[in-house]
Each structure stands twice: as structure tokens, then as C-alpha cells.
From TrEMBL:
This is CDP-alcohol phosphatidyltransferase family protein. The chain crosses the membrane at residues 21-49, 55-76, 115-138, 150-166. Pfam families: CDP-OH_P_transf. Keywords: Membrane, Transmembrane, Transmembrane helix. The keyword Glycoprotein does not apply. InterPro entries: CDP-OH_P_trans, CDP-OH_PTrfase_TM_dom.
Length: 196
């Protein structure tokens, strides 16, 4: 099923010169992973602290930077012999922590049910958890869509643009979140089926 994740190889090609430069400068994959996580936490905290939808404009910018950093840390690990057990933990934990940190500002948006936001966050964690379990049954880590990490980033990035421009849209976001949760359930099923 189609997913933004399928664009990753082309994105990596664009980032390869930068990645090679970082490797020559002594920057490690784990440092990039931790920086991406801290950037996400700081962004989520700032948006919540400011209590203004205008600060949602930060989300698409930071989500794009985070996507680039995630691609870079993977290339550093694979192409520059930086794979490590600690890196595997940091990569998976960093993704989940970053997702939660960047989704928390949705709680301050008027007219959105906190139950739907909570379900979105819960399913984001569960989808990644299901993907990580695959190696335990002898398969590779699963990344199927239609609502994987990159797809959630796209949805949240679009909300970061739309909400400050048209706050009235928040009245319809419960339906959007219902759709995202449903797609997350489908993603979980796809990942389980692929691993089995």
C-alpha cells in the first residue's frame, strides 16, 4: 500500500553529500539520532508553552528536518560502519519519543476531542511497536503503510500549516483523526501480516 516512506531512497540520494561530509567531520549516527529527538522534544514544548496556534508553523519545518536527520543517521550507520546495538535502541526510542512530543501540541487545539488525540498517539506508538516485533519472528523490521512514521509526519505537518491559517478547520479535525486512527489500525494489520 502506498506510503510516503516509499520516497525515502530518492530523499537519501539528495542527502548523501551532506551525510558524507558529516562522517568526515566525525559526527556519528547516534549523535544525529539524539539531536533529532531533542529537537522534537524542544519543539513540542515550545508550541505547548506558547499556547498559540501561530507556533504550529514550527511543526512542518521541524518535521522536515527530523525526516532528513532520520535518513542521515541511517546512512551514517549503514554506509560509514557506525551500526551499533545502542544505535538500534536510540533509533527506535527516538522515533517514538519524537512522535509523542510533536503530537502533544494537538491537545491545545480547540474543538478536538482529547480521546481522538490520545488514540492517535497510542496508535502511533503501537504501529512502531508492531514493526519492531518482526525480527522476533524471524523477519526484518516492518515499515508498511498507509500510516507509518513518514505519513504521520505529513499529516501533522499539514495541520501545522492549516491550523494557524484557518483555525475554524479545527471543528472538522475529529473526523481527520478518526481517519488517521483507522489507517493506523490498517497499518498495524499490514505489518503483522507481512511479518507472518
Amino acid at each position: 500500500m502506498i506510503s510516503v516512506y516509499q520516497l525515502k531512497p530518492k530523499f537519501q540520494q539528495l542527502l548523501r553529500p551532506l551525510t558524507n561530509g558529516l562522517a568526515k567531520a566525525g559526527i556519528t549516527a547516534n549523535q544525529v539520532t539524539v539531536f533529532a529527538m531533542l529537537l522534537s522534544i524542544a519543539t513540542g514544548a515550545v508550541v505547548v508553552w506558547q499556547q498559540s496556534l501561530v507556533w504550529f508553523y514550527l511543526l512542518p519545518v521541524v518535521l522536515f528536518v527530523r525526516m532528513a536527520l532520520n535518513a542521515i543517521d541511517g546512512m551514517l550507520a549503514r554506509e560509514h560502519n557506525q551500526k551499533s546495538k545502542l544505535g538500534a535502541y536510540l533509533n527506535e526510542l527516538g522515533d517514538v519519543v519524537s512522535d509523542v512530543a510533536l503530537l502533544l501540541p494537538l491537545f491545545m487545539v480547540p474543538n478536538i476531542s482529547p480521546w481522538f488525540i490520545g488514540a492517535f498517539i497510542f496508535m502511533a506508538v503501537l504501529v512502531e511497536f508492531v514493526g519492531v516485533i518482526a525480527p522476533m519472528v524471524g523477519k526484518e523490521r516492518q515499515y508498511q503503510g498507509p500510516m507509518g512514521k513518514s505519513d504521520r509526519a505529513l499529516v501533522l505537518g499539514l495541520l501545522g500549516i492549516v491550523l494557524p491559517l484557518w483555525p475554524a478547520v479545527s471543528s472538522y479535525l475529529n473526523y481527520v483523526l478518526m481517519g488517521v486512527v483507522a489507517l493506523s489500525v490498517l497499518t498495524m494489520i499490514n505489518r503483522i501480516k507481512a511479518a507472518l
